[in-house]
UniProtKB/TrEMBL annotation:
Belongs to the E3 ubiquitin-protein ligase UBR1-like family. Residues 814-839 have a biased composition (Polar residues). One of its GO terms (cellular component) is cytoplasm. It catalyses: S-ubiquitinyl-[E2 ubiquitin-conjugating enzyme]-L-cysteine + [acceptor protein]-L-lysine = [E2 ubiquitin-conjugating enzyme]-L-cysteine + N(6)-ubiquitinyl-[acceptor protein]-L-lysine. This is E3 ubiquitin-protein ligase. It comes from Alligator sinensis (Chinese alligator). CDD domains: RING-H2_UBR3. Pathway: Protein modification; protein ubiquitination.
Length: 1308
């Protein structure tokens, strides 16, 4: 009886209170206060219901019957009668219901459907921006209509799933029981905690749980609308998830609701409509005519992650296999979901600032990366977790199919043909990544034939462009080409490769590029790479070139970036054949090689699947076993200060010896310095273990075999275009052309070795020797096989160079073809080919022709409409850099890749004829079954390894290598050296090297002994004076030798390559506080007493200078005094020296990572590369022998008259000191630079005492006073006596020699 009489009335009265307390807000704040007041009044009522739920299952069953009984609700709702108060509350309820659906007026809907039926693609139609999304929804419609007037494009409606029969998703809500209206008001009041607790306390009742879940799904769209408007979205989000996670975590319940209430349709539709409210027109590619729309990352919806409760629910239900399969089987749902994902395709577009620095650095990239990871990547991983067996092949086919359709619509919407817009980059391509990851899963787990699900060649060409543009932009950003965009662009580049994002971003991008490379024409792909990296013009064999798209200062880093990308592309096997445990091991080794790691940091740095419920985290169960296999644990230790250092994992010796992979380190490096850190640790291991004593190069590691589906990737290593590039770069490196670093050479040799490791079937040397010339289709190489092309000699090359280049004076030999590149068979070239290619640039003329032909084939197979569009961009493939200022010249080359490698070995060793084919002594090296999988060594070792592999694969190569070595070596009678003679020669060579090392050590010891004697100024006896004079006189003729702590080379400081002393410049006023009186200072106790006495050193010298300037000429006065007592510059040094050019490179590397430094690199601050002491300048060491330097240190007992005479003579000599300084040299530039540093260290008022500002006399006075200041400060350190006092106890040492010598010479 109570359940039928009391409880329905009580719950209805609660609903009446909720109705009356709600007012449709005209302004937000009053409404919030009213809602809060209503909830306070109703708190006892809700508490009573909460107490009832605690009475047990019987009472919860009774409450369930009341809450879900439709008759009770109908009777009480219709029995309002003439009650005015009840009528008013019912009207408020109806008003509140108006905005509860997603529908809009029927005329707009009909118009939208009609437009869609006209044939416009679903994606271009996405123009569903906010206007059409909720145009009939109360107070939000006005704002969204305004959005629609901003030209987002035509607003057209996306078709919902074909299975959507129930229009409750779109229509206004209709309530049939107390539970439905109670939940409605709970949502309207933004989920008050008491109501949420009551509703959740009822969940143990199974009937209630089912009814409540269906009601929750019914109100899902209304929840989204309320959440968007809420000012407390964080609190509301937490309470929504608190409810939904308990409803959707049950797979049976989720499946039931999915079937009966169309849960998947509702969720996808609600997410779609939620994002439509913040769409803007995409400016990617075609800014004016683009029909594509993307989410605005600056909107509060994305910045505050308001969408995450809905995405979280969607991920939750996709973790259930039965629900996910229903999703993957429903084609309509997949279409709608791809439309949703396309909203994030190309968002947060970056445009490179070319003129001025951006005024405001937008931080929207945080929201963009979070949105792609949470809203796109996590659902993707959830779906992938259910596509692990052959039986699920059809699901993958469905996703790939609709993903490709969405991508084609996207390309059409942005008017993309084959060239990306310049100076634009977006890191967000979720459609590309969906396509890539489902391809990977199809091959790896479902045994699908890759070609059966790949699109045609034209689509693959389009698919590769934007991921490739991202890789090129990464190099541009690291090269500081985007510096005017601020630090946020570097933040995006770092986030893109960071461990929490890399699995969902850079890894799918590189995999997709690998797939495209394996199926596209390799010459087209290679040429596209170098074009995207803007280094096509650099790839010329001429000594000079004009780059039309890249500044010369960025050429080196962009070329390094292009080659490094190719090495990554061809070496990585993350999706091409590695198992999950192999991937985990490789990731762990890469992180440990960069730095020792704690267990927690290692867990954080290993890339994880974004969806923890997916069950496909690589090697998750074997983390500890892999860690114990690759690392040793260093126990925590107490430091001297009392703090405890954490326990760290460090790589085992076997890991350094056999598993260190620099390619994986480069891929996973967020900061460039981590790559150098890994190499430094690797070098230290090799030296400690005695495996290699020199400076090693990154080791070559044999790769895991490719999966059969991706064997086409190796075609890149065997295409003429790449061989042309490698030949050109080897030639330029051998000729010492600018902008080519050791890193470039390392990557070139790595690519050649990769090509030899992945050669196709062995060639037949006999066939090649007979028919080689007949097979020659162009003037570069006879074929595409690297082993064959290595021995192919190229005699002459026609190049395009500036008119000032030295090659212009040369005339073309009669036998040279007019092709961009001439080979040894140039005389046999058809005349038609000569005419066709005449006047084009030397490297990519062939590639341009091939690409044009490739485009023509595609256009022939396409519709006429597409032919018209593509014809516009085909003209872009004219010869790069062909400007009127360039002229054609003939370059004599007469080299092959083999000959270049042998000469390169000579250059790296510093000796002529350094390479000796090892098989001449031992033929067994050519017939060994397999070379080691892992190789240590330097550049010479790499060249030797490549030549050996080339000889092993071809008898002709072996013979040609021997011939080249005979030609380079002076002709001698062939002699077979016995093993005994070889041992004797080796022993003699070792002795010679030992003698050279001994002489170097003796010279270094003598230099250090002299340096010690120079700095040891505390002389105790005349005998010591005599000893010092004897020692210095013996070394009078020797030139000072300095050790560079960066490059490790020893040598004198020269005007062309000066050496400098690492110094710290600081302003100091310590000397100014010295007093003439020995009376101790007292604190003032009366107004008459002063804390600043008149007899301080600074005051005395200030008064002296003022007095002198009153009676004498200014120039004379400035020569009679010394300044620097206040604001003087104190120069200290750690004693280490380095080359000035090495220092500049070091500063550049620090500048790339300036975000993390504890000092300002832009102000010249740095830490000594050896001892890590703080410094801010480098003091150049003036060239000369040690005798000159000893003038300043020799202790003398001469009288004052003789000393004055010596000073006068020295002053006369100063005019002739630096004869070469008058001419512009590197030394003079650095001296001017350090003088500016010294002046900038102190304030201007302490540097300018002349009556005429900027007077040369003033500069002369300041620089001399710097020396006096440091001499006086050294006296203070030594207790007032240079001869009897001890050495300075400061952490840094005095550098009086350089201070007295260099500034004096510069001042002249």
């Amino acid at each position: 009886m109570m359940s039928e009489l009391v409880l329905p009335q009580f719950i209805f009265s609660l609903i009446q209170y909720l109705r009356e307390g709600y007012n449709e807000p005209a302004a937000d704040l009053p409404s919030e206060k009213d809602l809060h007041k209503t909830l306070q009044i109703l708190e006892p009522h809700v508490s009573f219901l909460e107490d009832l739920t605690k009475m047990g299952g019987a009472m919860r069953s009774v409450l369930t019957q009341v809450l879900t009984n439709q008759q009770f609700y109908k009777d009480l709702s219709s029995g309002i009668g003439e009650n005015a108060c009840a009528k008013k509350s019912h009207e408020k309820y109806l008003v509140a219901l108006k905005g509860s659906g997603l529908a809009f007026p029927e005329d707009k809907l009909a118009c939208g459907i009609q437009e869609q039926a006209a044939g416009t693609s679903t994606l271009a139609v996405q123009g569903l921006a906010g206007a059409t999304a909720t145009s009939g929804q109360g107070d939000s419609s006005d704002e969204e209509d305004q959005d629609g007037s901003q030209g987002v494009g035509k607003r057209k409606r996306v078709k919902l799933s074909s299975t959507t029969k129930d229009q409750s998703i779109m229509d206004v809500l209709k309530h049939k029981c107390f539970l439905e209206e109670l939940l409605f008001w709970t949502i309207k009041y933004e989920f008050p905690q008491k109501m949420v607790t009551f509703l959740l306390n009822m969940l143990p009742d199974q009937d209630y749980k089912i009814a409540f879940t269906k009601t929750f799904v019914q109100h899902y769209a209304f929840i989204m609308k309320t959440l968007k408007k809420s000012h407390e979205s964080d609190t509301m989000s937490n309470r929504i998830v608190h409810i939904s996670v308990q409803l959707f975590s049950n797979e049976e319940l989720a499946r039931q609701v999915t079937e009966e209430c169309q849960l998947l349709d509702i969720m996808v539709t609600v997410l779609l409509y939620m994002m439509e409210s913040c769409l803007i027109k995409s400016e990617l590619q075609d800014e004016e005519n683009s029909l594509h729309v993307v989410v605005n990352c600056g909107e509060a919806l994305l910045k505050n992650n308001t969408y995450w409760p809905l995405v979280s629910d969607f991920i939750n239900i996709l973790s259930h296999q039965s629900v996910a399969k229903k999703f993957l089987e429903d084609h309509g749902l997949l279409v709608t979901w791809m439309n949703f994902v396309s909203f994030f395709q190309g968002m947060n577009l970056n445009k490179r600032e070319l003129n001025e620095h951006v005024e405001f650095e937008s931080q929207t990239y945080y929201a963009a990366f979070a949105a792609e990871l949470e809203a796109c990547a996590q659902p993707m991983w959830g779906l992938l977790s259910h596509c692990k067996v052959r039986e699920t092949q059809e699901y993958t086919r469905n996703v790939v199919r609709y993903c490709l359709e969405a991508l084609q619509d996207w390309f059409d919407a942005i008017n993309f043909v084959d060239e990306p817009a310049p100076n634009q980059v977006t890191f967000h391509l979720p459609l590309h990544r969906y396509f890539a990851m489902f391809l990977s899963k199809a091959v790896k787990c479902q045994e699908l034939d890759l070609d059966s699900i790949l699109p045609d060649q034209e689509m693959l060409m389009k698919l590769m462009i934007h991921p490739l543009q991202i890789q090129a932009s990464l190099s541009e950003i690291h090269s500081n080409m985007w510096v005017r965009n601020g630090l946020q662009i570097k933040g995006q580049a770092m986030t893109y490769v960071q461990s929490h994002f890399c699995n969902s971003m850079i890894d799918p991008d590189i995999y997709l590029l690998q797939v495209c490379a394996s199926r596209l024409d390799p010459d087209y792909f290679i040429s596209s790479v170098f074009e995207r990296f803007k280094v096509v013009d650099l790839l010329t064999m001429a000594s000079q070139h004009q780059n039309t798209v890249l500044d010369s200062e960025h050429e080196r880093s962009m070329l390094e970036g292009a080659l490094t990308f190719l090495v990554l592309l061809l070496s990585l096997r993350l999706h091409l054949g590695m198992t999950d445990d192999e991937i985990l091991r490789a990731e762990m080794v890469a992180q440990l090689c960069m730095n020792d790691r704690t267990h927690s940091s290692l867990l954080d740095l290993i890339p994880e699947n974004p969806n923890p419920k997916s069950g496909i985290i690589p090697g998750s169960l074997s983390f500890e076993s892999v860690l114990s296999a690759v690392a040793d644990f260093k126990a925590p230790v107490f430091e001297p200060g009392g703090s405890m250092q954490q326990g760290m994992y460090t790589p085992k010796a076997d890991v350094w010896d056999k598993e260190f992979d620099p390619v994986m380190v480069i891929l996973r490096t967020v900061y460039r310095r981590d790559v150098q850190s890994a190499m430094d640790r690797y070098t230290a291991f090799l030296k400690q273990s005695g495996k290699f004593p020199g400076n090693p190069w990154p080791p070559y590691k044999k790769r895991t075999p490719l999966h059969p589906s991706y064997q086409g990737l190796t075609k890149l290593l065997h295409c003429k275009t790449l061989h042309i590039v490698l030949f050109t770069l080897l030639y330029k490196i051998l000729m010492d052309h600018q902008n080519l670093s050791e890193h470039v050479l390392c990557m070139v040799l790595y690519l050649i070795e990769l090509g030899l490791e992945n050669s196709p079937e062995q060639e037949t040397d006999e066939e090649d020797s007979v028919a080689g010339q007949e097979r020659c289709h162009d003037s570069w190489f006879p074929g595409s096989h690297l082993v064959t092309n290595m021995r192919h000699f190229i005699n002459y090359v026609r190049v395009r160079v500036p008119e000032t280049a030295p090659e212009v004076k040369r005339e073309a030999p009669a036998s040279t073809s007019s092709d961009g590149l001439a080979s040894s068979q140039s005389s046999r070239q058809p005349k038609s080919l000569q005419r066709e290619n005449s006047g084009t640039a030397q490297v990519f003329s062939l590639v341009a022709e091939r690409r044009k032909k490739f485009q023509e084939i595609i256009n022939r197979n396409s519709s006429e409409a597409s032919q018209v569009v593509r014809s516009k961009t085909s003209m872009k493939w004219s010869a790069p850099g062909a400007t009127p200022q360039l002229t054609t010249a003939i370059l004599e080359v007469k080299e092959s890749i083999l000959s270049l490698l042998i000469k390169l070995h000579h250059k790296l060793s510093g000796k002529q004829n350094s390479y000796y084919p090892p098989w001449l002594d031992d033929l067994e090296v050519l017939i060994q079954p397999e070379l080691p999988k892992y190789s240590h060594g330097d550049g010479m070792t790499a060249v030797e390894r490549i030549l050996l592999k080339g000889a092993m694969q071809s008898r002709l190569n072996k013979r040609i290598i021997e011939d080249i070595c005979r030609k380079v070596t002076p002709p001698v009678p062939p002699k077979r050296i016995s093993s005994a003679e070889k041992k004797t020669l080796d022993k003699e060579e070792r002795r010679q090297k030992a003698r050279e090392r001994q002489q170097k050590l003796l010279a270094e010891f003598a230099s250090r002994q002299k340096s010690f004697m120079e700095t040891a100024m505390d002389v105790e006896s005349p005998d010591a004076d005599i000893a010092m004079e004897i020692a210095t006189s013996e070394q009078h003729v020797s030139e000072a030798v300095y050790d560079c702590v960066i490059c490790g080379q020893s040598g004198p400081s020269t005007e062309d390559r000066p050496t400098g002393l690492v110094v710290l410049l600081q302003a100091s006023s310590v000397l100014g506080q010295c007093r003439n009186s020995t009376e101790p200072k007292k604190l003032p106790t009366t107004e008459e007493e002063q804390i600043y006495p008149w007899d301080t050193c600074a005051t005395v010298y200030d008064v002296r200078l003022t007095t002198l300037q009153r009676y004498f000429k200014d120039s004379s006065c400035l020569q009679a005094v010394s300044i620097g007592w206040e604001g003087g510059v104190y120069v200290q040094t750690c004693g280490h020296t380095l080359h000035i050019d090495c220092h500049k490179s070091y500063m550049e590397s620090l500048r790339n990572d300036q975000v993390l430094q504890g000092f300002s690199v832009d102000k010249g601050e740095f830490t000594c590369p050896l001892c890590r002491q703080f410094a801010n300048s480098v003091l150049p060491c003036y060239p000369g022998n040690n005798g000159e330097r000893n003038i300043w240190q020799c202790h003398s007992n001469k009288n004052m008259q003789d000393l004055v005479k010596e000073v006068e003579e020295l002053q006369e000599q100063l005019g002739t000191f630096p004869v070469s300084i008058s001419s512009e040299t590197n030394l003079s530039k650095e001296m001017e630079s350090v003088m500016k540093d010294i002046k900038n260290t102190t304030q201007k008022k302490y540097t300018d005492y002349s009556k005429t500002p900027g007077s040369p006399d003033n500069d002369f006075l300041f620089m001399y006073s710097v020396a006096r200041t440091n001499l006086e400060l050294e006296l203070v350190h030594r207790g007032g006596n240079l001869c009897l006092g001890g050495a300075s106890t400061a952490g840094k040492r005095s550098c009086l020699n350089s201070i007295i010598e260099d500034p004096c010479k510069l001042s002249v």
